[in-house]
Amino acid sequence: MYFIYSDELALLKKREKELECLYSISSLFDLHIPLPSLLKGIVNRASSACQFSEIAASRLTLDGNSYQTDNFTETPWKMSVDIIVHGMIKGSLLVVYLEERPVLDTGPFTSEEKRLMDAIVSRLGKVIERKVLEEALLESEKRHRVIFESSPLGMFIDHKGIITHCNRSALKIFGVPREKLIGSPITNFVSDERLEKMLLGAARDVLPYYENEYPARVAHRQVHLRSYYVPHRLMDDTIDSGVCLVADVTKNKQSEDALYQQKELLTSTFNALQDLIVVVDRDLRVVTSNWKSENVACTQDKNGHPHCYDCFMKRDTPCDPCYVKEVFSSGSVTEVEQTDEAAGKILEYRAFPVFDKDNNVIMAVEHVRDITERKRTEQALQMSTEELAKAYEELKSLDRLKDEFLSNLRHELNTPLTTIRGFSELLQEGTFGPLNPEQLRAVEKVVNKSKRLHNLIDSLLFASTSQGGRVRYNFEKILLSDSLLSAIGELSEQAKEKGITVNSDISPGKMFTYADADYLPRAFVNLMDNAIKFTPRKGMINLSAHRENSDIHVVLEDNGIGISREDLPKLFRKFHQIDSSSTRNYGGNGLGLYVTKVIVEDHGGRIWLESEEGAGTKVHVILPAVD
Prior knowledge:
Layout: H1 6-30, H2 35-46, E1 56-62, E2 65-68, E3 78-85, E4 88-97, H3 111-150, E5 155-158, E6 163-166, H4 168-174, H5 178-181, H6 193-199, E7 210-218, E8 221-233, E9 239-248, H7 250-272, E10 276-280, E11 286-289, H8 308-311, H9 323-330, E12 334-340, E13 345-355, E14 361-370, H10 372-429, H11 437-467, E15 475-479, H12 480-490, H13 492-497, E16 501-506, E17 512-516, H14 519-533, E18 540-548, E19 551-558, H15 592-602, E20 606-611, E21 617-624
Parallel strand pairs: 16-18
Antiparallel strand pairs: 1-2, 1-4, 3-4, 5-6, 5-9, 7-8, 8-9, 10-11, 10-14, 12-13, 13-14, 15-17, 18-19, 19-21, 20-21
């Protein structure tokens, strides 16, 4: 019979606690749980292996992050073990007693407890190293997968040319689902005989890197593909696998074709220019030009460029000073004109600088143009201009003579006309005795016709002087109603002869404006005269004037023959008449409305007509009002 002493029993219990702790922590390592969960589990289990576990607590620190038991408080009775990862201290495991314990091998802890903590920490360091490597590997795999999937092209094939992997771009190019592409020979989708021979091992001299470009029909559309193939060869030079990259370069090909066509177009345009374009370098050697002659004096070898003065300027040395050299020295555009006496031509030379990125002039572009015809045209134009100037001066002289003639004519006509009108009015008034009815009617006609003749002379003279802006007005503040009533009174007898009723509606308020007391009433007389002339017998004329804000609005309306829409824009032209035939029904000289418009606008006003053929006419006059 064996007896177990109490010390041995205590030792066994202690070993049992250590083994339970180690087993419990080892099971955590085998679970492959996330690192934070693993660290929390170690902290909660580490103190259970201590001799006095009921008063033990622990804390684990790793990369600045701490995990501890709920009852942890740092005390002097502790044991600390460093956590080493890849040869570097990354943290520590600290176990403490919350109450004072006697000093043993490591503080209050035994050497067996220290070895247990060392074993736990050592295993933890290896686990952390493994997890870091796994995470790095996963991250690398994820990154490479993202790169591969987002790559514009890409497929992996084995030694038989079977597709093992592909990305989305490859699926998009061939227009097939992934399951149809994976496991299929690459030759089913890439029509490249040389690549096929290479995969079959028939082409042993192929370079490690192979590239080809060709047109193909893929997914019912015509495309242009570029294939890259990088084989992986074994020691015996056989192909084990490889990476095949296929790119749809249709757009690139189209862009290249478009650029080529544009280049050809620019070259054709450059060569088709009638002017000579020459590009020269700093040594005045021709780089390129659109020179079309076969008689270019060029004695240099094929690798050299001829001098511009050898080929185009027909001289042995450059002109001095040379305008092309000035471009390189000054960096600005220069131009000269030269006359070829033998050929009878005048040439214009222009040189433009071409700068590099450092703003240095590296080339010059010469533009040579035959300006013979232009010069002749300019000379002819100059002569024509001089002749026109001479003719203009003659016209001005004639215009002055015309004005003098009209002024003299007015004076010469007004003198007898005034006498005729004066004596006629005296006869009409009975100053020289009573007249019988027939005599009175005859005298009245003489008076009316003399008035019309006087108005015609004044209108002709006004039309002549207004064209040159030589009408002199004497502006003063006048009452507009006086001018309107004066026009009505002057033409009252004419209206009475046709039985026309004239109605006036003039605002009782005082409507003042700045005007010439002689010219402005003449404008309204002309309007009244037109209204009476084109209104039938027994017709009606309405004259109104009212203040509208800062203006005075005058309206003269009749129920006469009206004006067609086609004739309205022409009414204010000089000498224009609606009926200009020799048998027209209405008299007139075509100056009334023209003179009226000039007078109104010279007074700062506006005039316009509203009319409809057969329905009468309404004339609007706007003049600025003054207080």
